[in-house]
Write a structure and sequence with these properties.
Layout: H1 2-20, E1 31-33, E2 46-48, H2 67-82, H3 86-105, H4 116-128, H5 134-154
Antiparallel strand pairs: 1-2
């Protein structure tokens, strides 16, 4: 499956790049302490790669592989290519986690299975919930979709 190979190549490249930055971040961890990678004045310097849910309700499970690796590669790529900071990385991670919730409902966990429907469904759910940051979330989802299109085209 060529599409899967494209995503695997993308993940491998971003993993190597992050490791070369000497950030003291372990790629395998489901939570990254980004204090040595991304400047942030706030008290929390961590990025979670766990399922999106309500904090305090139940322990959130780590995203499954290969989806977790894809999320990590996306935020590493966006930080590297756009020079974004901690808050933006955190925001993109949340949208990746939101997309996983939609995939999980359909029994999917491969980023190569993404279709336009997944993104439209994410927007529908945000709209139905009257999500206060709807436009910000939709812009982040668009950026993630553009990365996916780029992966599909550039690794052929």
């Amino acid at each position: 499956m060529k599409s899967r190979e494209n995503f695997d190549g993308f993940v491998k490249e971003e993993m190597q790049i992050l490791k070369s930055l000497n950030t003291n971040i372990s790629w395998e961890d489901s939570e990254w302490n980004c204090s040595s990678w991304l400047f942030h004045r706030g008290s929390s310097n961590s990025i979670s790669f766990r399922e999106l849910g309500t904090v305090g309700k139940k322990k959130l499970e780590p995203l499954p592989y290969p989806y977790m690796d894809f999320c990590k590669a996306v935020v590493t790529y966006l930080q590297r290519t756009k020079g974004i900071g901690f808050i933006a990385v955190h925001k993109y991670t949340i949208e990746c986690r939101r997309l996983f919730g939609i995939m999980k409902e359909r029994g999917e966990n491969e980023p190569s299975q993404f279709t336009r429907w997944h993104f439209e469904r994410a927007l529908e759910l945000l709209n139905e919930a009257n999500y206060k940051n709807f436009y910000d979330a939709s812009a982040s989802l668009k950026v993630i979709a553009d990365v996916i299109v780029s992966i599909s085209q550039s690794w052929d």
